Amino acid sequence: MTTTGARDPQDDDFEAPRPRLPEGFRIEGWETGAVIGSGGWGTVYEARTVADGTPVAVKVLPTGALGPGQRAALGELVAREVRFSAEADHPHLVRTHAVCTVEASELPALDGAIALVMDRAEASLKDVLDAAASGRPIDGAERVLRGVAAGLAHMHDAGWVHGDLKPANVLLGPGGQVWLADFGLATELDGTHAHLPPLGTLDHLPPEWWSQRTGTQGAVVRPTADIWAFGVLAHQVLTGGLHPFPGATARARSLSAQTYARGTAPLRLDAGLADDMRLLIADCLAPDHSTRLPHTARGIAARIEDITGSPRRRGRRLVPAVAAGFVVLTAGAVAGVALLGGGVGTRDDDRDGGVSATVTGARRPVPGEIPADSDVPEALRPVIARAAHRCTDEEITPVLLAALIKAESGFDADATRPQSEEYGIAMWTPSVFRAWAVDGDGDGDKDHMSPPDAIATMSLYVCWLDQRFKTGRAAEEGPSRAGRGRLPHQRPHGHRGGRRPGSGTAARGQGAALPRRLRAVTPGRTRAVGRTHQGPAHRSSPVPVTAAVSRTPGRSAAGCPAS
Ligand SMILES: Nc1ncnc2c1ncn2[C@@H]1O[C@H](COP(=O)(O)OP(=O)(O)OP(=O)(O)O)[C@@H](O)[C@H]1O
Q1: Ligand 1 centre from 524 Cα, in Å?
Q2: Greatest alpha-carbon span in the chain
Q3: Complex prediction ipTM
């Protein structure tokens, strides 16, 4: 699995302190300011043009601590970036104005570093997704997708592959501009494909990447790899950051994508996506290179223009409040509707306990969604719906979650059962909650007394239970093991920290009014599903550099001496 050398953000917990340029440091005609952020290769600074104060960003790639091989590899990446910047000029590609060499004898770690002077963005798409409410499109989602698709189409038309398309490499300018950035991995097509060094980021790599051999020239990369990455990114943009494949880590999501590509699991996109965007994303996520081939970046860009510009769609939200036709009401959900005191009324065709999802009348509730006349408090409805839609499994519906919450606390956010250590609207036992916790309201805190956090966490948990049930493990283990289908707080304890439960012994608490299908399920080893924000920005191993830098021809606002 690791033969490609692709980077897993989860692997990058440790970060050595990086040398920093002081504020006011002069690099040719620019003066650096505060640090914006760091990536695997270097650090990006705010900066301004001394002559007129124009804001720019300077990416500084230190070379000092690198061995000769590393220097050579970084040199190659910088050369690619420079060559690409020189040749490609497009409103949706970030401009590199100059490439300089840092002269700082008083800062040996940075002396000789390479500095790329670029247009300055206000944020990256990753920043926006990290701050977004999950389950709904980010502000300006359509504009962002149009810009990314147009930039990619321009690159492909010009015979380049980006090779590392991901939210961190989409920059958002001060006037709403959308720029593709980070062309270190961009490479020129030689006929139908090109070779890249074996890097890239797991979350946006196509499944075929894993079955490719990495030869001396690096891995083969084709435009269809960018199309796959665009499909993942579009799903994230339209759902506030949700990855289309389940898994709590980039590695797990990548395995899910491979399972799908092998044909052993269906593609389950977020239920809230509008149909035309859903189709487009499904096309981008066609399982292999050849089935993706018909979907060119130019074609995708045209489709997005059409979708986002068509009068039929104008004024319509990208994520409708309900997702008619995609949610199959399960037996558990039917029980949930009954528990909620709302009308069921949607059952046009009962088969084997399942219900077809035909919704015809305006007054009919959509299967799986909370009926208008139920007793679920208004304020909680969107919270519950968002939480349920985080689960890629169709059985986990808002109505099911609402029924569970009603059974647990009667929707009382302050509910407590101290004798069994159960608290809040979902009656979590705090120690168990910590092992599963999801930040449902995006406030940076995971609090079992916060209804959005407690409900989002509950969704993750029942999603996991559901998947486990479907794999048959639940049936194998049966009710004899501890837990017996109880809600999270009642599962075995004994786990601490970030590890998911699975090894505890004593079960606590009272059985809740769970749908029968959940009652016999016992947790075991974790397969976490749901929230799929990318992990922390990856910090790959120290990277290569050779100072083979040249001035960017044609585009320099001001030149730097070639080194
Ligand atoms: N031109 C720019 N203007 C403003 N911010 C930028 C600019 N270029 C990069 N950044 C920000 O600086 C930070 C570091 O960027 P950098 O490109 O070094 O790393 P990365 O893309 O996060 O990771 P890697 O390069 O390892 O793939 C990121 O937060 C990125 O959004």
Answers
A1: 39
A2: 78
A3: 0.97
